[in-house]
Amino acid sequence: MKKNVMRKCGWMAAVAAVCLSPCVAGADASMSEGMAKKPRIVMNVVNFVRNLHHSHSHEWMVEALREEVALNVKYKLKNTILFQYDALIDPGLLEAAMKSDRELTEFGLWFEMSRPLNEAAGLPWRPKHDPSWDWDWYINPGFLMAYTHDERKAIIDTAFSRFKAEFGYYPKSVGSWLLDAWSMDYMVRTYGVDGFCICREQDNTDAYGLRGGYSNGAYYPSRRNMLSAAVDMANAVQAPVFKMLTPDPIYNYAKPKERFPDYPFKSGCPTMEPVCSGGNVKAIVDWFFRTYTQAPGLLNLSYMQTGQENGFGWTKIKQGLPYQCACIAAARDAGSLAVETMGETARRFKADHPRNCPQTQVALDDWSGAGRNSIWYNSRFYRANLFRDGARLYFRDIHKMSDAFEEPFLDKVCTGWKAEYFTPPVVDEYLFRKDGSSGVMSLDGAFERMDATALPGDRLSVVATRADGTAARIVFDERGVSVDGTGMAVEYPQPFRAAARLHGGRLSFDFQGFRYAIGYEAEVEATHGGFAFRPADGHIRLDFSLPDEGK
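and the corresponding structure tokens:
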């Protein structure tokens, strides 16, 4: 069987063995100078299960789970199954889940509200679409932030108690498209949850608007904002959050069809989600595996996740998930990634990383053939995305992390249909692309390639070569970015530009009434639309570790 699986996945012919040893803090001391730590490359298969759906039959929901379980059994894959409360109390779905290999399967909870959960918790159920619906995907009433703290507590206690009654223990893994920091912290402190998963950034679908935070991977969230990586672990929820379904580092940003006319798909999320564009195209799936297991410049943890909610139905799921599972098994057998339950990965992360660590996603080849490059660097102080499109090289996105910037429904109740979460933006092409402004920080010159190298100390070096043979060097570290061989310029829309101020080596901003700043070492000139940075003593330095001023 192993030989047949290897034959099915074309990308495996080029896979070189990757070290799977943990990235233990302090390991640099045991390695030769100039040699970076090798990343830990991990795959989680997470299938989450609903019972109630306004347009699908019970058998539809059971069949999808049954087939997902059969795939995991066939390929002997460690996996995680997350039950929504209405699935947890359904005998048919429980029976299908119990067909799994129990030694390889972890059970946990998926948090979306439904009529049975609300009624069991003593709360009213108020669907927004139709009074007869027992499940509703709107934030209000379908997610925890639509409830008061006391109501969230009652809902959480009810779900955890029912899970323990079924399995004899409390779940260690919890997921939802959207969770709030208060509920996460309560679950960790009260029930010992080890890890969470939430939606990746997606600007083209659903009601879950996330702008900022880690672009992918794992991070300890701030107790005041689940999207923001905790700067100080004293302010952290003591369990990591994973972004779901492996985002495409190039195209999973903003609305790709609007931004790139040559983008081949009309809709859907550019991720490995098996029912969406990319996740069910074999050549693109192969590209995901190459990008997340073989790319240069990966740091600490390269995290992949797949799986599917059963509500999509097996007819659609089978277009992508069987091929992905075959590739996962082949990669595991070749030693290029570790397949774990989500709880195992969370516990390993906590053991290896006592605080948030830098992680990167590096895409130096483009599955679409358009030749775009994208590099993401994420740390406890900031995230940044360096992007090349044709000859243009620019920072498409830079967000600060902040322990003081509150999520919108930390203490308040969401009464609307959607929820938008942010971290403080410095550059954001999607958020700032208006009023004639590009909203990006462009580097001078016409560039034709990028190369990336991981360096000791969780640093990433990127050399960008121009068409004339000259080059710019960009070095990312935990606290900031150093740039040599180029100037840079940024344009902002109003009123963000009007609120930005230069003073004493600081560039200060105001976003949603919150004041924050970055430090700089450069010659800086205020322009009509933004700021121009020129090298001082040969380089430009941006520092994202400055304390925030707050509200």
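(Above: one complete record from the training split.) The two ends are 60 Å apart (CA to CA).
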